[in-house]
């Protein structure tokens, strides 16, 4: 998935907003030069308001589609009764069972990405190891370090806005706590009081 900054506007929306701005500027110049006379102030105000409304609606639709594309990238990470299924490479996945997961943490990406080191979701295992997910937090490229050239990269990543990334992290941590609670209750010895 390609990188999508938090406030990116698609090219068609940029063109539309640019055309509306040029049309408004041209109409304003025609009014100032006296080329257009006899128009009601309500009509002029309504025309300007309509162009602003069209620009705002186009921006909102563009952002909604961008967010939908970001959420679609999460199809590689699935949560089930058995555990969390993560990409393990280009065409393979790995199921990490709930009892093997100690914590969900954030660390620098190691295998997934587009050649830059980003914060990624990791599953810390009870054995001490860790499994990297393809879910990463967006950061501007100017603030990122390039990945070492010898490292193999898998480009199937979901680069999420910081708010969506943090929400995903919180959700996975709550799910893990929910799955660990019955196991902890099952393992604690029951004492009978006499």
Commentary on this structure:
The protein has 194 residues and is α+β, with helices and mostly antiparallel strands. The protein has helices spanning 11-33, 41-72, 162-187, and strands spanning 78-79, 83-87, 93-97, 101-108, 116-117, 119-125, 130-137, 145-146, 158-160. A 4-stranded mixed sheet has the order 4-6-7-9, with helices on one face. A 3-stranded antiparallel sheet has the order 1-2-3, with no helix packed on it. Helix 1 (11-33) packs antiparallel against helix 2 (41-72). The longest helix has 32 residues, at 41-72. The protein is elongated and about 95 Å long.
Key features of this structure:
3-stranded antiparallel beta sheet; 3 helices; elongated; 194 residues; 4-stranded mixed beta sheet; alpha+beta
Number of helices: 3
Helix and strand sequence:
HHEEEEEEEEEH
> How many strands in all?
9
> From the helix content, strand content and strand pairing, which structural class follows?
alpha+beta
In terms of DSSP E residues, the strand content is 15-25%
Largest sheet: 4 strands, mixed
> Which blocks of ≥5 consecutive residues have pLDDT under 50?
1-6
Shape: elongated
Give the spatial strand order of the biggest sheet.
Answer: 4-6-7-9
Instruction: Indicate the mean pLDDT.
Output: 79
């Amino acid at each position: 998935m390609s990188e999508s900054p938090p406030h990116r506007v698609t090219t068609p929306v940029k063109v539309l907003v640019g055309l509306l701005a040029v049309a408004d500027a041209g109409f304003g110049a025609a009014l100032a030069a006296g080329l257009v006379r006899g128009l009601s102030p309500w009509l002029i105000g309504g025309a300007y308001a309509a162009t602003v409304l069209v620009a705002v609606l186009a921006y909102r639709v563009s952002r909604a589609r961008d967010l939908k594309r970001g959420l679609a990238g999460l199809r590689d990470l699935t949560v089930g009764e058995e555990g969390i299924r993560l990409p393990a490479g280009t065409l393979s996945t790995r199921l990490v069972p709930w009892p093997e997961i100690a914590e969900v943490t954030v660390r620098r990406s190691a295998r997934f990405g587009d050649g830059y080191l980003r914060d990624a979701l990791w599953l810390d295992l009870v054995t001490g190891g860790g499994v990297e997910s393809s879910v990463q937090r967006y950061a501007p490229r100017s603030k990122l370090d390039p990945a070492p050239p010898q490292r193999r990269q898998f480009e199937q990543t979901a680069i999420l806005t910081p708010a969506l990334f943090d929400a995903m992290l919180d959700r996975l941590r709550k799910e893990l706590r929910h799955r660990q609670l019955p196991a902890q209750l099952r393992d604690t010895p029951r004492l009978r009081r006499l």
